[in-house]
Structures are given as structure tokens and as C-alpha cells.
Design goal:
With 200 residues, the chain is mainly beta. It contains four helices and eleven strands, in the order βββαββαββαββββα. The strands form two sheets. Strands 1, 4, 5, 8, 9 and 10 form a six-stranded mixed β-sheet that branches. It has a five-stranded mixed β-sheet with strand order 3-2-11-6-7. Strand 2 and strand 3 form a beta hairpin. The protein is globular. The protein binds the ligand Nc1nc2c(c(=O)[nH]1)N[C@H]1C(S)=C(S)[C@@H](COP(=O)(O)O)O[C@H]1N2 and molybdenum atom. Molybdenum atom (MO) binds next to loops.
Length: 200
């Protein structure tokens, strides 16, 4: 069993004091790929992350993104298809740290993540600001695998994993909520694994 593939004991609690394994989930050491549609081909020389909407428009090149404050986070990963991974170490930029570089209008209350390939997912801005929402480009000491969202994806450890876009390229700030891809297709808007908010 590898360092990053441990299963929690059944009674283990996570850092939020909740059972590490949410109801209806099974621990796995595998990392299945869940992608709707083809994996986009991304060239780092033309890669951009853009912010638009109720924010002063801004964009980062890959080099500029890597110059932002980098952090690491050990976190669990819960997929709505009933598997959970434990203790992966992610490296990247916390969303709340990225916000230090953005001037957001006071009316902005929601964020839509946009991805290469067209995937979207939505969360309230206040949830994006939580301490564990991160834009990640490394996992367990290696660059994030393209099939898992490299060069850059979002992780939302307190939500089911569809709330984090792989291949992130945009952050849209909105006054009103706008359901993303899976949210429009019947998946929960709030996606709390401990409440088993899978569908709506
Ligand atoms: N761009 C993009 N991001 C995405 C998806 C996708 O299809 N496209 N799938 C989501 C879903 S449903 C899940 S469960 C996780 C899966 O991440 P993984 O493929 O690294 O396991 O990514 C989420 N982010
Ligand atoms: Mo998923």
C-alpha cells in the first residue's frame, strides 16, 4: 500500500470532524478518470486562465500563474459514482489567494468555473473562498496528469468532485447562480457528500 493510497479506518474523522468516508462511498486506491467527452489538448505556451464577469477582467499565462503564491494541501476526493480517495497531496494556488489579485464587484455572489472543452460547474463565491478550494497543478509530487485535469484543475474537497473543473481556463463572476454542466443534467447544486446530495 503506497503512502498516498491509505484507506481510513471505518471510524476515522476528517479535519472537519466528519466521518472520513461519507455515506454511500467506498474507499479506493485507484484514480478512475471521469470525463464527459474528449480530453482537450492544451499547449502551455498558449494556456491562459481568465477572469471575467463582475470582476475587473484579468488573465494569467502559465508562467504568471506559477509566480502566484503556491501552497500544498492534503485532501480527500469524493466522486458521486461512489468512490473516495484519501490523503492525496495537492499543490497549487488557493482560490482565496487568487482573489487577492482580483477586484470583484460587490454584487458578485457566484462563480462559474470554465474549462478547455466547454465543461462548466458553479458554486457560490463564499464556498469558493473556503480554506480548501484550490487550483491545483501537482498531485503527490508530480505534475497533474492530463487525464486528471492537467495542467490545472480545481479541487473542492468538501463537495463531490464534479464541483472542480479539470483543465480550468476561466472564472466567471455572477450576481445570480447559473447551473453548470452536470447541475443542468440533474446533479445536485450543493453536492455535499455527507448529506448525500447527489441529485436534485
Ligand atoms: N473539464 C471537466 N472537468 C471535470 C469533468 C469533466 O468531464 N470535464 N468531470 C467532473 C467529474 S463528474 C468528476 S467526478 C471529476 C473526476 O476527476 P478525475 O477524472 O480526475 O477522477 O472531475 C470533474 N471535472
Ligand atoms: Mo463525477
Amino acid at each position: 500500500m503506497g503512502l498516498f493510497s491509505k484507506r481510513p479506518p471505518p471510524d476515522d474523522l476528517n479535519v472537519y470532524g466528519k466521518p472520513s468516508l461519507p455515506p454511500g462511498q467506498t474507499a479506493t486506491e485507484k484514480f478512475p478518470v471521469l470525463t464527459y467527452g474528449p480530453e482537450p489538448k492544451i499547449d502551455l505556451t498558449t494556456w491562459r486562465l481568465r477572469a471575467w464577469g463582475l470582476v475587473e477582467s484579468k488573465e494569467w499565462t502559465w508562467t504568471e500563474f506559477l509566480a502566484l503564491k503556491q501552497s500544498s494541501l492534503k485532501a480527500d476526493f469524493h466522486c458521486v459514482t461512489h468512490w473516495s480517495r484519501f490523503g492525496d497531496v495537492w499543490e497549487g494556488v488557493f482560490f482565496r489567494d487568487l482573489m487577492q489579485h482580483l477586484t470583484v464587484a460587490p454584487e458578485a455572489k457566484f462563480v462559474v468555473q470554465h474549462a478547455y472543452g466547454g465543461y462548466t460547474t458553479n458554486l457560490p463565491l463564499s464556498w469558493m473562498m473556503e480554506e480548501d478550494v484550490m487550483l491545483v497543478h501537482r498531485m503527490n509530487g508530480a505534475p497533474l496528469d492530463p487525464e486528471h485535469g492537467g495542467p490545472l484543475r480545481v479541487i473542492t474537497p468538501k463537495r463531490y468532485a464534479w464541483k472542480g473543473a479539470k483543465w480550468l481556463n476561466g472564472l466567471e463572476f455572477l450576481a445570480k447562480d447559473a447551473p453548470g454542466f452536470w447541475e443542468q443534467n440533474g446533479y445536485s447544486n450543493s453536492a455535499d457528500p455527507w448529506k448525500e446530495e447527489r441529485f436534485w
